[in-house]
Each structure stands twice: as C-alpha cells, then as structure tokens.
Amino acid sequence: MRIEEDLKLDYSDVLIRPKRSALSSRKEVNLEREFKFRHGDKNWKGIPIIASNMDGIGTISMMKSLSKQKMMVALHKHYESERYSEIIDEFTFLTSGIKEEDLEKLEALQKNKPIRFICLDVANGYTERFVSVVSRVREMCPDSIIMAGNVVTGEMTEQLILSGADIIKIGIGPGSVCTTRAKAGVGYPQLSAVIECADAAHGLNGMVCADGGCTNPGDIAKAFGAGADFVMLGGMLAGHTESELELIEKDGLQYCEYYGSSSQKAMQKHSGGKAEYRASEGKEVLIPFKGDVSKTLEEILGGVRSACTYAGAETLKQLSKCTTFVRVSNQTNNIFGLPQ
Ligand code: 5GP
Asked: Model's pTM, two decimal places?
C-alpha cells in the first residue's frame, strides 16, 4: 500500500482569478476552436463542448440543436443503425463499446460510410483489452478521429494516444449520477485529472476531453482553463425536450429522468438487468423539465464567454494560458439543481 500525499483538486476547490484585460465586451470573445488531430484526418472547427453518450443526452434531437451552435454530440449507442442516416457528420461522434459485437457493428458502419468521429467508451480505460481495441479500431478506421476513455492519469493518457486515439476522455467518478466513488472507493478529483492528463496529452499532440462533474457554466470554464480541449456534459443538458424521454408528472410539475449508464435503470433497459457479480455504479434522478435546450446553451456559452473576459482571453484557445486558479474552500454553486 502507498499513499500519494499531493493535494488533488475538484472544480469546486478553485476560482479563476480576474485579470486586467483589453476586452471591452463578452461579444468580442471567440469560443470556436480549430483543431488538427494527431492521427485522424481533416481539421475540425466548432465550439468544443460535447453532449455525453448517455440515454436522454446523446440523442439525435440533441445533435440537431447543438450542431446549430457548432457544438457536438456523442450519440448513445442504442439507436438502430438505420437512424444513422440522420447524422450530421461534422458534429457527431458514433459511440461504441468494446465487445466483439460492438466492434462488428462499428466495422459494418465504417464499410458503409467512413465514420468521421468515433467515441470508444468504457467505465475503466485501464485494461489491456481496451488498449488493444483502440489499436484495432485505429487500423480499421485510419482516418477517423477517435476519442477514447475514461482514464484520469497521465501515463494512461499517453498509452492510449500512442495506441491510436486522438482525444482522451478524462473522468472517473465525477459524474452527477455516477456512484463509483461511493460503490468502489475509486476516483480522482476532476480538476487535477484534467490538468495532469492535458499536460501529458499535449506533449504528444493529443487532446483531452474533460468528462463529468460540470454542474454550472463556471465549471466548464474551469475545465477549459485547466487545459481541456473538449468538455463533455451530461446532467447540465438533462431534462430538455431533446432528451427523447417521456416526461413524468409529479405534484403538478413535469420532470424528466436522468440516469447513469451503469444504473439499475439503464442495465434493465438495455441488458435485461444487472449481472450478479457487479454493483450498479450509477443512479437515477428526476430533473425538472426545462423545455428546449437552446436557453440552457445560451447560459452555458454566456458563462464561458464571461470567464474569458474576466481572464483576459480573446479566444477560448487562450483561456488556459490566461488562467490562474485561486484555491478556495469549496465553492459549490449548484444553479442547475443537479445531484451533488
Ligand atoms: P455529468 O455531466 O452528469 O456530471 O457527468 C456525465 C458523465 O458521467 C458521462 O459522460 C459519463 O462519463 C459519466 N457517467 C454516466 N453514467 C454513469 C454511471 O452510471 N456510472 C459512472 N461511474 N459514470 C457515469
């Protein structure tokens, strides 16, 4: 047994320190970024915020709304292949697990039409099997932009980039409906994970996507300030028309379900129940229905623009260079009403 004594931080442990700036209005801030990837062909330009590949979040309706703002969606993997004809290539990741049947489905789709963005998603990205699947998918799809995860440490970020991934998804335990920290005692404070993995990835011309734990627009700004190239959101986008889930009436109010991909609910829906050997590492919550996602997107983009103005960053790209974090005693500010 060993204990690491270094202090590790979450988003709520810091604030971005305001700085003198030449910017006079939030309007002047440019949130679009243009990326060239280490392996994948073709550059990409847009606002690097991605809706998570979860039920109720990574939906085709969400893709249609977010792409209007040049934001992205990682589609959940439960659509029938026929629906993929609706996909907007430029703003959509196709998600795959790592079972043989998942990879066969991916190969068939790739043969039919080359896939531009692929998200290889597992709860634990530390297995040898995952590393070998990343290499195999890179061989199968040489020009695709591959995002793979989740991990939280620099050495595994490097390993996955060297195995063929372009973007590494960072986060074990921070998600608003994730219970891994409680059920397994495993995790890593998200701000530190992003800082350390971004440093490792950028040294190899790779990128990171900060996945989970953003409960308000300020957290998204902190993730970008910490060096994230992309930020993935679940809970902040839950409870909208675009969730494609039935609304629930309770005490005269409308709610929408939001549940973890490893929750009892998800396992029941997609795998016919939970296997005996595993614990559910996700929970189910009810989110008050908020209508169309466009209003929430305005709040999010407005918040990140505001952060850039305070930090003196004319573009989102400059934000991490302009960021100085100050450590504070827990600044939880849960304006989106997500579970803590
Ligand atoms: P949020 O934005 O809600 O804080 O976090 C969303 C992220 O939580 C997802 O993108 C995914 O990485 C993670 N996640 C989703 N469902 C589960 C789950 O059931 N268990 C765990 N451990 N993580 C989950």
From this structure: 0.97
